[in-house]
């Protein structure tokens, strides 16, 4: 049990998880900021909100954790207040490092615009994730904002979001190092590679010629170090040879390869055949 602060006249304690925080009327020993961040890291967002109200010393630290990762769902009524706060507080906008944008099929739309993201400082975002089932025009504008274009990690968790135009826009991000995409039977057509891209994760419905062409196009413009393929369906042994040639083109830089599939048929030992067919 960690105790922050010391009580004089009052004996009021606020217990948040396993951390005991006490207010004081006199000066208290100051904790190193790194130690304080480590302690508060174990608190839930509601508890962090309470901690932020205790004193000015804890306010900035709690804010740094509360706004570090923003989950912005356009169909949640809570985003109304969150959007207002982010539009009107430059300090809090600058704390965001991980941003998740979601729009589900059902439910009313509580945020009709995402233009507040244009107010985020350039180079401030480290990671952005989006999953849109509707209102694709919102995503088109988001990809043009400075903070988004300088993100290092991008994840598109819905096949409706990964059109060829959007994927090529993402590949043009100058600092892009990690990319996760999900698409259906038809893979995006790549017009350019991403020179700084090191890690690529693809979740697809089936191993197809389009997927292999996508990988080949990427291999000419980047030096991938890690490739993960999550394939729902493996159809046709002929694709083993095609995938072998594709991976061979990536091998000069490729250090880690994962192929995941929910189905492993006895007549299609896919990964085993792939590995055995490749030279050492």
Spans of at least 5 consecutive residues whose pLDDT stays below 50 are 1-28
Helix content: 25-40%
- Based on secondary structure, the structural category is alpha/beta
How are helices and strands ordered from N to C?
Answer: EEEHHHEHHEEHHEHEEHEHEH
Number of strands: 11
Mean pLDDT: 77
Q: Reading side by side through the largest sheet, how are the strands ordered?
A: 4-5-6-7-8-9-10-11
C-alpha geometry? elongated
The number of helical elements comes to: 11
Oligomer: single chain
CA radius of gyration: 24 Å
Q: Give the N-terminus to C-terminus distance in angstroms.
A: 54 Å
Largest sheet features: 8 strands, parallel
As a percent range, the share of strand residues is 15-25%
Could you explain the architecture of this structure?
The protein is α/β, with parallel strands linked by helices and 280 residues long. It contains eleven helices and eleven strands. It has helices at residues 33-40, 45-51, 56-66, 79-88, 90-93, 136-142, 146-149, 164-171, 209-219, 238-250, 270-276; strands at 2-4, 13-16, 19-22, 69-73, 98-103, 127-132, 153-156, 178-183, 199-206, 226-233, 256-260. The strands form two sheets. The chain has an eight-stranded parallel sheet, with no helix packed on it. Helix 8 links the parallel strand 7 and strand 8 (178-183). Helix 2 packs antiparallel against helix 3 (56-66), helix 9 (209-219) packs parallel to helix 10 (238-250) and helix 10 (238-250) crosses helix 11. The model is unreliable at 1-28 (pLDDT under 50).
């Amino acid at each position: 049990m960690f105790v922050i602060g010391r009580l004089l006249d009052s004996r009021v304690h606020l217990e948040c998880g396993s951390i005991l925080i006490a207010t004081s009327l006199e000066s208290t020993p100051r904790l190193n900021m790194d130690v304080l961040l480590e302690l508060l890291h174990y608190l839930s967002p509601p508890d962090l909100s309470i901690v932020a109200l205790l004193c000015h010393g804890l306010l900035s630290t709690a804010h740094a954790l509360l706004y570090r990762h923003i989950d912005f769902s356009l169909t949640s009524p809570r985003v109304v207040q969150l959007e207002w706060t982010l539009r009107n507080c430059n300090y809090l906008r600058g704390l965001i490092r991980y941003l998740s944008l979601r729009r589900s099929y059902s439910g009313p739309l509580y945020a009709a615009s995402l233009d507040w993201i244009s107010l985020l400082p350039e180079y401030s975002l480290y990671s952005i994730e989006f999953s849109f089932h509707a209102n694709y025009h919102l995503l088109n504008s988001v990809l043009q904002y400075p903070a988004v274009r300088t993100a290092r990690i991008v994840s598109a968790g819905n096949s409706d979001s990964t059109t060829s135009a959007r994927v090529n826009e993402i590949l043009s991000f100058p600092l892009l190092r990690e990319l996760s995409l999900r698409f259906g039977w038809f893979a995006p057509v790549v017009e350019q590679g991403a020179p700084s891209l090191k890690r690529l994760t693809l979740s697809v419905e089936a191993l197809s010629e389009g997927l292999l062409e996508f990988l080949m196009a990427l291999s000419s413009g980047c030096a991938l170090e890690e490739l993960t393929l999550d394939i729902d369906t493996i159809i046709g042994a002929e694709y083993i040879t095609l995938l072998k040639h594709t991976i061979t083109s990536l091998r000069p830089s490729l250090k880690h390869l994962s192929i995941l599939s929910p189905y492993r048929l006895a007549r299609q030992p896919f990964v085993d055949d792939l590995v055995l067919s490749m030279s050492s």
